[in-house]
Specification:
Mean pLDDT: 82
Distance between the termini: 101 Å
Structural class: mainly alpha
Number of helices: 15
Strand order of the largest sheet: 1-2
Shape: globular
Helix content: over 70%
Order of helices and strands: HHEEHHHEEHHHHHHHHHH
Strand content: under 5%
């Protein structure tokens, strides 16, 4: 090829190849920027924006239907159980049913002594669990870091105890409180056994509530030269009160529903207790006995179950009211 032809070939070279040549040979050319909306359409297969918005709207509607359906299913199951129990036991409910003792093995009469025993057992369990669980939660949250060996062992032990069957707690309470400590079958032994069952859940929830308090609260208290006791009772505990109330409410629910643990500790006696050292029958034990051991006792069992549900709702509402009242009073002071 002559020099003239070579020059002509160089002149007719395409512009993009000519721009890409440098001193060290041809280089790649950086592509032009693509707008975000156009890039999204290319990524999604080139579909228009209306189709994408319609798809997102349908996905949101489907998620809302699933969430509301799950909530409605739970509420429906509770309503169905409540209606079934109320259909069989509502006719037995009266003031006399709440105050008179049972008669004819529970087929007639009321649940007065049983209701008193249940409240006493629950009171012992709640007072004992709060008295032991609150300081333990404060120790784990404020003085024992998550990486320490003692903190790990305590938390692991609490997690194991939280999943322990109630029959194991019943045997433990019978061996420790009834026999070793000489409490025999009594309301005190049953309440202390229930406290052992409630403690793991209450301590873990209280600890998480204290850990959830912002660090700025502690730093502000230190900057104001507040003592650790004042910081704990004036700042940390009121801020963590919802978690403490949640642990208490869940503990109340578990304590009211326990049967196996109370059979081995508080006993079956359905008379009016005169002290905490007397044996007493809880509502859950009474419901189990009427349903399984007494023919024709389904009506009394369902009426007792309605009382148990109402008692649980009243205790939950009272706990929520006390929590709100204490927080308002504490922060106002």
């Amino acid at each position: 090829m002559s020099r003239k032809d070579h020059g002509m070939r160089k002149r007719i070279m395409p512009a993009e190849h000519a721009e890409g040549r440098g001193r060290s040979g041809p280089t790649l050319r950086r592509p032009a920027a693509v707008p975000y909306g156009q890039a999204r359409q290319l990524r999604d297969g080139g579909e228009p924006s209306a189709v994408l918005l319609n798809r997102a709207f349908r996905a949101d509607r489907l998620a809302a239907v699933v969430v509301w359906g799950a909530a409605g299913l739970v509420a429906g199951v509770f309503a169905w159980l409540l209606a079934a129990v109320a259909f069989q036991g509502a006719a037995r409910l009266s003031l006399a049913f709440l105050t008179t003792p049972p008669a004819d093995a529970g087929r007639s009469g009321g649940i007065g002594p049983i209701l008193v025993s249940t409240l006493l057992i629950l009171g012992v369990a709640m007072v004992s669990s709060v008295a032991v669980g609150a300081p333990a939660a404060v120790f784990l949250a404020e003085f024992s870091h998550a990486g320490t060996r003692s903190g790990r062992w305590v938390r692991r032990s609490l997690d194991v105890l939280a999943g322990m069957p109630s029959i194991v707690f019943g045997l433990f309470g019978n061996a420790l409180f009834c026999k070793l400590l000489g409490l025999r079958f009594s309301i005190l032994a049953g309440g202390l056994t229930l406290a052992c069952m409630v403690l793991p859940l209450f301590i873990r929830l209280a600890e998480e509530g204290l850990r959830a308090v912002p660090t700025e609260y502690r730093q502000a208290a230190a900057a104001l030269s507040l003592s650790p006791t004042t910081t704990l009772f004036r700042i940390l505990l009121p801020a963590a009160l919802p978690a403490l109330a949640a642990g208490l409410v869940l503990g109340i629910g578990r304590a009211l529903a326990e049967t196996a643990a109370l059979v081995f500790t508080s006993g079956y006696v359905d008379r009016m207790p005169e002290s905490l050292h007397d044996s007493g029958r809880a509502l859950s034990v009474h419901i189990y006995d009427l349903s399984m051991n007494v023919s024709g006792g389904d009506g009394g069992a369902c009426a007792s179950a309605l009382v148990l549900i109402g008692l649980l709702l009243a205790l939950n509402g009272g706990t929520a009211w006390l929590t709100t009242h204490w927080r308002r009073k504490t922060y106002r002071v």
